[in-house]
Amino acid sequence: MQTLNMPDKKGYYGEYGGAYIPELLFNNINELEQNYLKIIHSTEFQKEYHDLLENYVGRPTPLYHAKNLSEQFKTKIYLKREDLCHTGSHKINNTIGQILIAKALGKKRILAETGAGQHGVATATVCALLKLECIIYMGQIDMHRQEANVIRMKMLGATIIPAISGSKTLKDATNEAIRGWINDPDSYYLIGSAVGPHPYPDMVAKFQSIISKEIKQQLLKAEGMEEPDLVIACVGGGSNAAGAFFEFIDSKKTKLIGVEAAGKGIDTGYSAATMTLGTTGILHGSRSIIMQTKDGQIIEPHSISAGLDYPGIGPLHAFLGKRKRALYLNVTDEEALQAAFNLTKQEGIIPALESAHALAILNKLELHKDQVLVINLSGRGDKDLPTYLDHYHEK
Ligand SMILES: *Cc1c(COP(=O)(O)O)cnc(C)c1O
Fold this sequence. Notes:
By secondary structure, the chain is of the alpha/beta class.
């Protein structure tokens, strides 16, 4: 696949993407679209971005050969340790990038939505560091599910606005953040995943692509080759997967698997497996695959993990799935929980519930001992301890 010219000038990956926005946001999106590549490519930006990634986030994150897990699944498994990033997940790779863009555009205030709270914490963290005002929209249900992250954001100086409409989760927080931006056009809206109107999906994928750039270098050192046989990542909106896939999209060798949340099961009505259940439509400013009824009402998603509880997927993934360049599978809440407990016992690593979805797919793949797999461990499990406690039974 040749992706060098993607997305096109209007932000399309094939039929997916674009910018479907209210007129009141034209100027903001236009300003961003006209300037983001210029800013990203400037030496000043590159220097500050990479300096912060190295000295503040702790990059490069290790590519860890998980020997016990490899033995269990009779194959060779590497874990890309995004869980070791400052603030506990890959999200900060993107927040640093976008906040530097906001500063270059002269913005003083950042608006963001958050689901699990990881994006909100990463945003509030970088706002504290770079002295910007920070307003976070969060679903009221998620505020209860992720109380520790709410406390972190408050300590970091952010104002938190609860989203009380709809299912009171990520989709509703995103709606309210967009509404907030319309009312406050001088602020910068910082999207936390590879979704939203162009240029956000492209910008987020580019900032997260540091993950696959490092995998290439690290695999070359460990295995004498840059390209693994398979890369696996969980998919909410699709930012950690976009970052883990990015450098391999044009590879003829590397297979790509994205894992979505099947929730209680694909057929139960409590699911967030957009690529399996969704159809083409428009959500949050872009044309992609979304979970909707026949007359276009968004179907409330469900996942045990707040970070995957989203009824859409970024346009890049819709495109890769449609062209069969990447395969999108799903696992249930229960399968993800078991995979989290298994990794903890096998390797002494407590993964985020989101990342546990990527691990759980190992049970469903045909694996061989001479394959090299990379699983993107998108985050750590500290925020999920209450959920793990609810489901943990000593055997
Ligand atoms: C937010 C989050 C995700 C899901 O978001 P993507 O944009 O699909 O990566 C996955 N894992 C962790 C740890 C997260 O915090």
